[in-house]
Design a protein that fits this description.
Bound molecules: zinc ion
Distance between the termini: 91 Å
Shape: elongated
Number of helices: 19
Strand order of the largest sheet: 35-36-37-38-47-44-43-40-41
Number of strands: 57
Length: 1005
């Protein structure tokens, strides 16, 4: 046979595009329009119903950036359309067919009931009655922030976005949907895309080609509508061939990945969820086989509050089995940066919301889009009752291809969770032939597993799954040459995948994303706000518990619940990482300030209740470590998690700080400075060794050029290292403190348009050298790092993560290690050779890198960035942070100093009676949280963990008598009915394995 394949394919392309598609809505009449432009921020529908509307017509411009226009559309369904499928069709003037991140609408009826959202790929609204039609469209003029790529734009904040209208209304019609043509379109598209994926040597490809040709022959271009059915008949046979016996199975589930804030503010996400969820519930009514999986409890909470009607429809869909709440987290949080307790609370608040609202106990973590995943997850997920974990983002790796799609993921403590990573490489599936074929080709567990998950639907306000996707899914259910497509819940998929592949391979440790490494540093004030909030929440819970038990203080359950949820929301994977527009980060900083104010007030009230009145200074140590610390010129001793009258101790002989213009010496460490304020020597006087590498200077600030190839706020590209300036010149180096117990030297530097003032402080009795830093930052596309070249031969570093730490090699033997050229830690990173280590502690930052040359290990802390997209002024202005170096530290010291730096002692006046006591102390393990039980029973919940990576025989002691100690899960529910024995002295022995997290419910007697 002569090969005319290309000719037939080209004929099909043209006919599909120019004849079949336009014939779907061949008959239409325009709707009449009026408009009301909301003067300010969005308003409820009730207000729009009563507004004054002005005439408007298609082709007119509308929508200043972030503005809202309400359109009233009226018309009459022509009598001769009776019995046909009528719909309204809108085009708000979409700038592309990219769904999300541009204009969107929600259509209401005249009584204000929401019907359905409209988006570029979902423009229709069913009209089910004859006669007059009246609709109200709430149209949001959200700007397309990344329209021109990663360039600075003023559109990302209301105050800079201007007033020029962004959109031109392109269509508002009543139309007839020609069902034969519509179905023909789907038949042709599905077969065409399948054909193009098949090998040219595959007979099936040619059978499809000839069937398509016969269909084109049967279709009259002069009467597409009248001949569509005849054309479809030519395709029945090729569409009815079943899939191969060994065909891969795609478990598809409807999904809409809605970023809780990103290129739009939080308030817009409130509306995006209402639009998408209205669509989804409408679609569920039309397609009984449709199932939708939806994460992020926060988004449900918004819909419940702002669109109760849509929330009612969600309830009905859940009940009908068509909607599955998944993920069990408050939001899809960043996967690296949330602190241990915060990550636990993401799971607690997410799971509890779904339990309370729907009676659904989520079985899996749903995190397709976070920028890497901490090795603490498997244990925390299991402790929240999760059985599976879904991720997707690792397919974005720049360097290495992740070797598995279905695997057991093992955390730092050895816990494993069954994990899947969809091989379609998308969480916005559309059932294109290319996507399905890629999923099959890419799936790396063939021979072991036979199935993969495909979340389908447009995210971010694109409206979620569409009827077109469901029509495709029906045709692809069992089709030769294609994977089988079955729509099912993620729970069903994971159960089947695990049953067929119980011995899936194991991946141990973190799932590091080889991309978006800037998210450990960008928007530093958002990050320090998170860090501060996490520690204030810990303090508030601890002090309130002590006050409730000791002084009858009214434990503020509701306030703490609300504040936790606020902090959890801001850990969303585009807020905490710093990848949102200016509006989002401006609001986040204000919110963190409010949260801090409220938590300080809560702590103050509880502390006052506990301490009583009087003039005796009380000290509160909210950290889990015993401390002997200089405070306000005194040396104070404080037990872990304790409060009580201040206990002074005399400084040991020789511990006074000797400070000169160029040195600080407390008998434990001696720090020397050069004339430019750089640290020329750190002498560990106990170990008798120099900490800095020979000839090197410590705390050297290095300013790097930092323009990644794309994804400015997200990425640090490796080439940043090639260009830098060392900030070696100081404006002044001044001795600013010379007290017996504390000495400090201040160094001021100016560079570019910026200034940095650092106070380097040494205190009696402590090896910790604090570097208190204030930066007035006005750089552009720069990365500021603080460098510490250590005379330590470290093969690896330990970096704190949630409830433990991970080791990372300092060499770059393989591409996997080389790709980790920027990593994160929480409060500390530790570099050690046998017998000697150094810790770097911080109270606000996360990003750093480590390299080793010969015997010198260099740790560089990433302090600030200045990307210009999507926020053109990211990080500009004032920053305050403290980092510290602790010579001669082992990991236990790093853990203790990490807590101490982030939880400064609090001193306030109180009554003179009694002595300081630890509310809860776990000797041999680390207490992460102490709080009253969420069920308001008055039980005390303690979460402790083994922080050093070894086995611990620990002992729990409390200041209150115990009746019972029960092991519970993160949600404070009994875990396997384990009760621990109380010893005669009222203490409890605890056995913990390495990095084990243990939650205990303490019943008081
Ligand atoms: Zn996302």
């Amino acid at each position: 046979m002569h090969d005319d394949r290309r000719l037939v394919e080209q004929r099909l392309d043209r006919v599909l595009k120019q004849r079949v598609l336009p014939a779907i809505h061949a008959e239409s009449i325009p709707l009449d329009l009026t408009v009301w432009q909301v003067p300010g921020e969005p308003v409820p529908v009730a207000e729009a119903l009563g507004a004054e509307y002005e005439p408007f017509s298609v082709g007119q411009q509308w929508g200043r950036p972030w503005g809202t226009c309400w359109f009233r559309a009226t018309g009459v369904v022509p009598a001769h359309w009776a019995g046909r499928r009528v719909e309204a069709v809108f085009d708000l003037g979409w700038v592309s067919d990219w769904p999300g991140g541009q204009a969107e609408g929600l259509v209401y009826d005249v009584d204000g009931h929401p019907i359905k959202g409209i988006a570029p790929r979902n423009q229709h609204l069913p009209i089910t009655h004859q006669g007059p039609v009246e609709l109200l469209i709430e149209a949001a003029a959200n700007p397309d922030i990344l329209h021109d790529g990663f360039v600075p734009t003023p559109l990302g904040d209301l105050s800079t976005a201007g007033d020029a209208p962004l959109y031109k209304l392109a269509r508002a019609d009543l139309a007839v949907l020609d069902e034969n043509v519509w179905h023909l379109h789907h038949d042709l598209e599905v077969l065409r895309e399948l054909m193009l994926e098949l090998a040219e040597t595959d007979p099936r490809r040619h059978e499809i080609l000839r069937a398509l040709e016969r269909a084109l022959d049967a279709l009259s271009l002069d009467d597409v509508s009248g001949t569509a059915e005849a054309a479809r008949e030519q395709l029945v046979e090729v569409l009815s061939r079943p899939a191969h016996a060994s065909a891969h199975t795609i478990s598809a589930v409807g999904h809409a990945h809605i970023d809780s804030a990103w290129l739009w503010p939080l308030r817009e996400t409130v509306r995006k969820t209402a639009r998408t969820f209205a669509n989804v519930t409408a679609l569920a009514e039309d397609y009984p086989e449709f199932i939708f999986a939806c994460s992020q409890a926060q988004q449900y909470a918004w819909v419940k509050e702002h669109s109760p009607e849509v929330f009612g429809r969600i309830h009905a869909a859940v009940k009908a089995g068509q909607w599955q709440p998944v993920g069990g987290m408050w939001v899809e949080a960043d996967g690296n940066l949330p602190g241990g307790e915060a990550l636990a609370r993401q799971l607690v608040h997410g799971k509890r919301f779904f339990l309370d609202e729907f009676g659904v106990d989520c079985r899996g973590v749903w995190l397709p889009d976070s920028f890497g995943y901490t090795a603490a997850y498997p244990q925390l997920a299991r402790l929240a009752g999760m059985e599976w974990f879904l991720t997707q983002k690792i397919s974005w790796n720049q360097t290495n291809k992740f070797p598995h799609h279905t695997f057991w993921w093992e955390g730092i403590d050895g816990s494993r969770i069954f994990t899947h990573f969809p091989p379609a490489d998308t969480y916005n599936g559309e059932f294109t032939g290319a996507e399905l074929a890629h999923a099959v080709r890419n799936y790396s567990d063939k021979g072991g597993g036979t199935r993969s998950l495909l979340p389908f639907g447009f995210g971010d306000g694109g409206g979620g799954p569409t009827r077109d996707m469901l029509e495709r899914a029906r045709r692809l259910r069992d089709l030769e040459g294609s994977p089988r497509v079955t729509i099912e819940t993620p729970d069903a998929f994971f159960a089947a995948a695990r049953a067929e592949y119980p011995n899936a391979p194991v991946w141990s440790g973190e799932l590091y994303l080889e991309l978006h490494r800037g998210t450990f540093t960008t928007q530093a004030r958002t990050k320090s706000g998170n860090r501060r909030s996490e520690h204030l929440l810990r303090e508030a819970e601890l002090v309130c518990t002590a006050a409730a038990l000791g002084a009858g203080f009214d434990y503020p359950y509701e306030r703490l619940d609300r504040l936790w949820k606020t902090v959890l929301l801001h850990q969303f994977h585009d807020i905490l990482p710093g990848s949102s527009i200016a509006w989002v980060h401006r609001e986040a900083e204000a919110t963190y300030a409010r949260v801090a104010g409220e938590l300080e007030a809560v702590i103050d009230e509880a502390a006052a209740a506990l301490a009583g009145s009087g003039d005796t200074p009380w000290v509160f140590n909210t950290s889990p470590v015993a401390r002997t610390e200089v405070f306000d010129g005194m040396l104070i001793q404080a037990d872990p998690s304790s409060a009580g009258p201040l206990r002074l101790t005399a400084p040991p002989a020789g511990s006074e700080v000797l400070a000169t213009e160029r040195s600080l010496d407390n008998g434990l460490v001696r720090v020397e400075f050069d004339d430019d304020g750089l640290i020329s020597s750190i002498r560990d006087l106990t170990a008798g060794r120099e900490v800095l590498a020979p000839g090197a200077r410590g705390n050297l600030l290095r300013l790097h050029a930092d323009l990644p190839n794309e994804w400015d706020a997200w990425d640090i590209d490796r080439h940043y290292r090639h260009q830098y300036v060392d900030l070696t010149r100081a404006e002044s180096v001044t001795l600013v403190e010379q007290a017996p117990l504390s000495g400090a030297i201040r160094v001021e530097r100016a560079f570019g348009d910026s200034r940095i003032v650092q106070t380097i402080r040494v205190r009696a009795g402590s090896r910790r050298i604090d570097i208190e830093t204030e930066v007035d930052w006005h750089e552009t596309e720069k990365l500021l790092k603080a460098t510490f070249p250590l005379d330590v031969h470290a093969e690896r570093t330990a970096a704190e993560i949630q409830f433990g730490h991970v080791f990372r090699p300092t060499h770059t033997n393989t591409s996997w290690e080389a790709a980790r050229f920027e990593v994160y830690c929480h409060r500390w990173v530790h570099a050690a050779e046998h017998g000697y280590g150094v810790a770097l502690i911080n109270d606000a930052t996360y990003g750093h890198d480590v390299s080793r040359e010969g015997g010198v290990t260099t740790v560089r802390l990433s302090l600030l960035r200045a990307p210009r997209s999507p926020d053109p002024h990211a990080d500009q202005g004032t920053h305050r942070m403290t980092y510290a170096i602790v010579p001669g530290a082992d990991i236990a010291d790093a853990v203790a100093e990490g807590y101490a730096l982030n939880l400064p002692l609090r001193v306030r006046p109180g009554g003179g009676a009694g002595e300081a006591r630890s509310l809860v102390d776990v000797e041999g393990a680390t207490v992460e949280a102490v709080k009253l039980a969420d069920d308001r029973s008055g039980d005390v919940i303690v979460r402790a963990y083994e922080s050093l990576g070894g086995r611990a025989r620990a002992r729990l002691r409390t200041s209150f008598p115990l009746a019972d100690v029960e092991v519970v899960d993160l949600l404070e529910r009994p875990l396997a009915g384990v009760h621990l024995a109380l010893d005669a002295d009222g203490s409890v022995a605890l056995d913990l394995h390495p990095f084990e997290v243990l939650t205990l419910r303490l019943r008081r007697s």
